[in-house]
Amino acid sequence: MANQKEVRSRIASIKNINKITRAMEMVAAARLRRSEQRIAALRPYAEGMRKLTRLAAEQAGGLPRVPVLDEHDEVKRVGVVLVTGDRGLAGAFNTNVIREGVRVRDRVRGEGAEATFSVVGRKGVSALTFRKLDVRTSYVGFTDRPAFANAREIGEELTARYIEEDLDRVELVYNRYVSPLTQHVWRQTLLPLQRADVIGEGAEEDGAEEGEQTEAERAQSRSDWEYEPEPEELLERLIPEYVTISVYRALLESAASELGARMTAMRNAAENAETMMDDLTLEMNRVRQAEITQEILEVVAGAEALG
Amino acid sequence: MLDVEVLTPEGEVFDGEVRQVSTRTEVGEIGILANHAPLLAALQPAELRLHVSDSEVKSYAQSHGWLQVFGNRARLLVEEAIDPDDLDAGALKEQLSDAEQRLSESEKGSADFARAEKDRDRAEAFLAIAG
């Protein structure tokens, strides 16, 4: 059995762990609230942009060449944007999204194409580099509080590479925030728009009513719509903006998810530490009692030997 | 009356019925009344006016964005829609001269140039609204 000193030092170290994890939980909780507000405010705007782009792109069929709207004949290179966090200690947050990124790579390979990664967050960069995957660009240092400028940098790079035909398709993989307990790994095709869920099922967050309205919009398409400026020019400016807003949304969703996951993970860790402290305190009492009993026995035995 | 929704990345600014929406597209001033034909437009920075009733007009300093009109419903997706009383003329003047400086330093046609131009247009329009 361990002696008193050993048990006491274990209690002290568990106590420290408890304090640290509690503090991390509080920090994450305080910042999560702001992060939650930001993503809740952005969602309707991002959804609106998605619908607007879908509408504009649908009606563009038969338009003269708009490079960013072109679907490339052959898909050889797929860009995967993987949004992770800069720091760990957030439960399965990073692991899940990285695993999905690797799965996307495998699927792309199955289609006979190559995947290159644009990675957000130090955790993703180190995980993919370790696996010797092709990390073309990395963006680090802002995952807990992304700014619009960060999204613009990433979005502009993607759009430019797509237009230059360095990429034939762009996929976005990130954690979507549901609650501090739940984050869903989400995959979305950004470019080409023909493949994007902008046009796809469009099921995402649309209610039945929205779906009907879209049908009506489609029925009306081409004939009566007015454009200012002309559709080609409008699309050429709208699509990069749509890409940037989509990336921005992914960054904010991921930031809220990271903080939520960290808060939950740290709360569990702190609770585990408390349970452990209780167990160790019991153990400590038992050890002390055993030592006292031992001493008494020795005294009694000694007295008997003398007598 | 028509339904109007004004959304920005920072949240919803307005949602309700109005008689008329007036703002500015690339082509020029535009006024949307009930039952307007379907429209997709790129918006320029301008004073956005929502005529809620004959006597009440809500006014916003609105920056770049997009307008979609369909089925008696107008949706504005704009980068900013600020109460004109919240505009800070001093800060705007600084932003304007900063944008002009960047404009003169950057190459025409580059991304920096486009961004500087956008910032300048916004600062100019907002200054005009701030009076």
Terminal residue distance of chain A:
32 Å
Determine the number of helices of chain A (DSSP H or I, runs of at least 4 residues). 6
* Count of strand segments of chain A: 6
CATH class of chain A: Alpha Beta
Give the DSSP E fraction of chain A (strand runs of 2 or more residues): 5-15%
Helix content of chain B: 25-40%
Q: What is the subunit arrangement here? A: heterodimer
Into how many domains do the coordinates of chain A divide? 1
Structural class of chain A: alpha/beta
Named CATH topology of chain A: Pyruvate Kinase, Chain: A, domain 1
Largest inter-chain interface? A-B, 30 and 24 residues
CATH architecture of the largest domain in chain B: Sandwich
Radius of gyration of chain B: 16 Å
Strand content of chain B: 35-45%
State the fourth-level CATH superfamily of chain A.
ATP synthase, F1 complex, gamma subunit
Helix content estimate of chain A: 55-70%
- CATH topology of the largest domain in chain B: the name is ATP Synthase, domain 1
Terminal CA distance of chain B? 30 Å
Examine the secondary-structure arrangement and name the CATH architecture of chain A. Answer: 3-Layer(aba) Sandwich
Total domain count of chain B: 2
Question: Average pLDDT across residues of chain B?
Answer: 92
Give me a quick take on this structure.
The complex is a heterodimer of chains A (307) and B (131). Chain A is α/β, with parallel strands linked by helices and 307 residues long.
Describe this protein's structure.
The complex is a heterodimer of chains A (307) and B (131). With 307 residues, chain A is α/β, with parallel strands linked by helices. Chain A is 61% helix and 13% strand. Chain A has 6 helices and 6 strands. The longest helix of chain A has 76 residues, at 231-306. Residues 198-212 of chain A have low confidence and may be disordered. Chain B is α+β, with helices and mostly antiparallel strands and 131 residues long. Chain B has helices at 89-105, 111-130; strands at residues 2-8, 11-18, 20-24, 29-33, 39-43, 46-51, 57-62, 65-70, 73-78, 81-82. In chain B, helix 1 runs antiparallel to helix 2. Chain B is globular. Classes of the chains: A alpha/beta (307), B alpha+beta (131). Strand 6 (226-228) of chain A pairs parallel with strand 5 (39-43) of chain B.
